[in-house]
Amino acid sequence: MMIDSYIKRLNNTFSPSMLIFHVIVLLSMCMEMYRASTQLDLLACLRPMLYSAFGLFQFFICYCAYSQALINEANDVSINIYLSEWHESPKYAKSIMMMIGMAQREIKITAGGIANIDFKTGLDIENTQENHKQYKRKPFYGMLLQAN
Predict the structure, then answer these.
(1) Could you give the dihedral angle defined by the CA atoms of residues 133, 45, 142 and 145, in that order, rounded to the nearest 10 degrees?
(2) What number is the average pLDDT over the span 83-100?
(3) Residue 61 is part of which domain span?
(4) How far is CA 96 from the centre of its chain?
């Protein structure tokens, strides 16, 4: 199937470089969040937090959105084939049923074959980052209370 071969070519071409890119971004975001968590001044925390927020925004817009759109289009192929009134041509019914079956396979776009690139992954990363912020915020507020 054409979409399946396209996704395989896409994964084979960009998957290793996307993995390296995501590891670099992940490490830099971790360092920036650490820098933000060790600063007592709110303005000093602002730069690392903005860097992390824009990095996450870039991941959503530049990678997750387009990957999810391609995955959605690939998942809609079987529905579109079914809605094409294939049952009116019994001569092609067997071939069309095979195409529907092939189109129902799960499509994944990955970074290095390790991490899926889609909205679910992006939201999982956002959730993890938010939990980390909540965890780091507790000691910060404790220090503020002790200072008063």
Answers:
(1) -140
(2) 81
(3) 9-142
(4) 32
